[in-house]
Structure formats: structure tokens, C-alpha cells
Design goal:
Layout lengths: L1 E9 L4 E10 L4 E5 L6 H9 L6 E6 L2 E2 L14 E4 L11 H6 L7 H14 L15 H14 L4 E5 L7 H17 L3 E6 L11 E6 L2 E6 L1 H6 L4 H7 L2 E4 L2 E4 L3 E4 L4 E10 L4 E7 L2 E7 L8 E6 L6
Parallel strand pairs: 3-8, 3-9, 6-7, 7-8
Antiparallel strand pairs: 1-2, 1-4, 4-5, 9-10, 11-12, 13-17, 14-15, 14-17, 15-16
Bound molecules: adenosine-5'-diphosphate and magnesium ion.
Length: about 300
């Protein structure tokens, strides 16, 4: 089990993270979310032992994770970390990059394992391509496969699908997270993309103002966001009479106390997002069709509208 006990950290004088505590079981998927600059990458680096903590302790099972002050070589065999930069070897092929981390003593095993990993990241067509000739998203996938090569017990992923195009993203997420569950590999995913989280994370941890402000299942936080910051992670939302409503929880009706004037309609795929002026503020309403600018409407705010 990963145990993070009251850690504090500062790069220089001003602190970045304070009083961070949480734990994670083997095989579990934890998402770390927060705005840009909230300390997600820093937290992953601390978990990897890249910096010395100002205060607190980190353990994986019985082993304490220590920073460079105590460890000559950064990193541990049971833990792999895929950074936002990848650090691949450009002049050798995809399969060679992955194979570099596998034992040379069992060539058949090595070949089989390399093929398996290439399949997980959906790069079969590029196995023999030199890494320098790959796109950013393809490099990101090689970095993922390489991190998995040695079967870590825990994997740290920093915005792992950020460079991958939308055509591939969802299928790749399913493939990677399914593989991690099958192999009982714990993972911590730093992200600001809800699609990395919904359907995959067992729990999410929300960083704000140096602290953990929430830790719960995605279902719980989605249904009961408590804070605007959490609601904004999941989608367009509104604060009405002190309560938080997602755009799909507002409904246009014939008559209501709540009134507004349509300012814009944005096509959203399955529906339209209407921007409506209400008490000189914008309110966002999901609606099945476009409504002409300037139209006066009434709407209801309900948490139990079925969709
Ligand atoms: P996130 O990954 O959530 O965007 P980071 O962990 O990268 O956030 O950054 C958290 C804060 O720490 C930011 O204010 C950032 O400017 C600062 N920071 C990050 N890396 C360094 C560094 N190497 N030296 C000094 N400050 C840093
Ligand atoms: Mg980051």
C-alpha cells in the first residue's frame, strides 16, 4: 500500500504542497486533479523520490521513498514514472526502446513481451519505426509501454494522454487502464481531463491551494461537487441560489420564477449549450435545439432531471 503521511514541500521559500496525506491500495487507480500550477506534477515527483520532502513521509509497503539527499540513484524498481517529457532514445526503433528494459537472456520471452506491450499502446504498425520519426502522441505511447515493460507495482502517469489525438484517445485509455487492472498495477494519474478519470479512477484527489480539498470516488464528486472548482472539472456548471447545477440540470419550461434572455447557442454534438443572461450573469443550459438570440425564456433548476 502507498502511504503518504502529512507531506510538505517547497522548491524555494514559497511552499507548493502542504499537509498532503492519502493512501492507495495495490491495483487501484487514483486520479490527481487540479488546475494548472496546483502541484500535480510536483506531487508525482515527490512520490518518485525526485526531491527531498520538507516534512512528512512516503511509504510503498514497507519501503520508505527517499529523496536525493538519501538516495544516490533516483527511483525504485517497483515504481515507474512517465513524465510529461518522455525521455526516449530517438535513434532506435519503438520495439528496441521498449526491449531495452527487458532481459536479454530470454530472447523469446523478450519478443513476446515487447509485442504484448506494443499492442497495449496500439502501436503495432510502428514497431520497427525509429522513435525520432514518430509524432508526439506516438512517442507518448512508447513511453507508456516502456514504463510497463518491467511490470512495476505502481505507475505514476503525468497527463498520459495529453499528446494523443481524439481519434485514438478513448480506445487507448481503455486498453492501458484495463491492462493495469489485469496486472494489479496501482496507478496515479495527474490530469486536468475528466475523460482520463471517469470510468477508470477508483478515487480522485483534488488539489487546491497547496492542499487536498477532496478525495472520493468520481461518482460521488460528480453527483455532489460541493465546490465550483470540482464541478468545473466535470463540465459547464452554474451557481444558482447558492447551489451548483450542471448545464443539463437546468431545463427550459413554459413558466418559472427563473428567467433569462438567450445570448448564444453552441452546438455540442448531442445537444446545444445555451448561454442565457440571468440577473446580468451568464447561465449555461443544455437544450435539444438552438434558440434564437434575444429570446426570453424561463427555466427550472433541478438536481433530479433524468437524461
Ligand atoms: P501542475 O502539474 O499541477 O501544473 P506543478 O507541480 O508543475 O503544477 O507546479 C506547481 C507549482 O510549483 C507552480 O507554481 C510552479 O510554477 C512551481 N514549480 C514547478 N516546478 C518548479 C521548479 N523546478 N522550480 C521552482 N518552482 C517550480
Ligand atoms: Mg503538470
Amino acid at each position: 500500500m502507498l502511504k503518504v503521511k502529512n507531506i510538505h514541500f517547497a522548491y524555494d521559500k514559497s511552499s507548493v504542497l502542504e499537509q498532503i496525506s492519502f493512501s492507495l491500495n495495490p491495483g487501484e487507480n487514483l486520479a490527481i486533479i487540479g488546475e494548472s500550477g496546483s502541484g500535480k506534477s510536483t506531487l508525482l515527483k515527490l512520490l518518485y523520490g525526485e526531491y527531498d520532502l520538507s516534512q512528512g513521509e512516503i511509504f510503498w509497503k514497507e519501503e520508505q521513498i527517499l529523496g536525493p539527499k538519501y538516495n544516490l540513484v533516483i527511483g525504485y524498481d517497483f515504481m515507474k514514472y512517465v513524465t510529461q517529457e518522455f525521455n526516449l532514445m530517438p535513434f532506435i526503433t519503438v520495439e528496441e526502446n521498449i526491449g531495452k528494459f527487458l532481459s536479454r537472456f530470454f530472447p523469446e520471452e523478450k519478443q513476446k513481451r515487447t509485442e504484448e506491450l506494443i499492442k497495449v499502446v496500439e502501436l503495432e504498425a510502428f514497431a520497427k519505426t525509429k522513435v525520432k520519426n514518430l509524432s508526439g502522441g506516438q512517442k507518448q505511447r512508447v513511453a507508456l509501454a516502456r514504463a510497463l515493460a518491467k511490470q512495476p507495482e505502481i505507475l505514476l502517469l503525468d497527463e498520459p494522454f495529453s499528446h494523443i489525438d481524439n481519434f485514438k484517445k478513448q480506445s487507448l485509455r481503455r486498453s492501458v487502464f484495463k491492462y493495469l487492472k489485469e496486472k494489479n498495477i496501482a496507478c496515479i494519474v495527474a490530469t486536468h481531463d475528466k475523460n482520463d478519470v471517469l470510468g477508470f479512477a477508483d478515487e480522485m484527489l483534488v488539489l487546491y491551494n497547496k492542499n487536498v480539498i477532496a478525495k472520493d470516488t468520481p461518482q460521488q464528486l460528480y453527483r455532489n461537487p460541493q465546490l465550483p472548482l470540482i464541478a468545473s472539472f466535470f463540465g459547464e456548471f452554474n451557481s444558482i441560489n447558492g447551489k451548483i447545477y450542471y448545464a443539463h440540470q437546468l431545463q427550459i419550461v413554459e413558466k418559472s420564477e427563473l428567467k433569462g434572455v438567450v445570448k448564444s447557442s453552441y452546438f455540442n454534438g448531442e445537444s446545444w449549450l445555451l448561454e442565457v443572461e440571468h440577473h446580468s450573469k451568464s447561465v449555461f443550459i443544455e437544450h435539444e435545439k438552438e434558440i434564437e438570440k434575444g429570446t426570453k425564456i424561463s427555466f427550472l433548476a433541478q438536481h433530479n432531471i433524468d437524461h
